[in-house]
Amino acid sequence: MGISCPLKEVFSFCYCVTFPNGLTENEHDHDLVGKSEGSVKPNPKEVEEYKWVSMKFLKSDIDKNPEIYTYWFKILLEKLPEKIASTD
Predict the structure, then answer these.
(1) Which domain holds residue 75?
(2) How many domains does the chain have?
(3) Cβ neighbours, 10 Å, residue 76
(4) I want to staple 83 with a disulfide (CB 3.0 to 4.6 A). Which of 6, 11, 44, 55 is the partner?
């Protein structure tokens, strides 16, 4: 996204899921957080579009449109607030 900042791993998790189309994901996800004061400058070869939304909107949108979000992202979103609070 064209930003640079120190990162800290706050947690990791493993998951395995088989989707209705028969494909399976079996992954170990490492989750890092950081804070940047810089502007976002995504590489157009890697990012087509992005947007900033509130956590309230994001959770509501996942409830309404779960199929447009990746499986791992929904797990991450459940765990992230409690994990960040425990590292402050």
Answers:
(1) 8-35+51-87
(2) 1
(3) 15
(4) 11
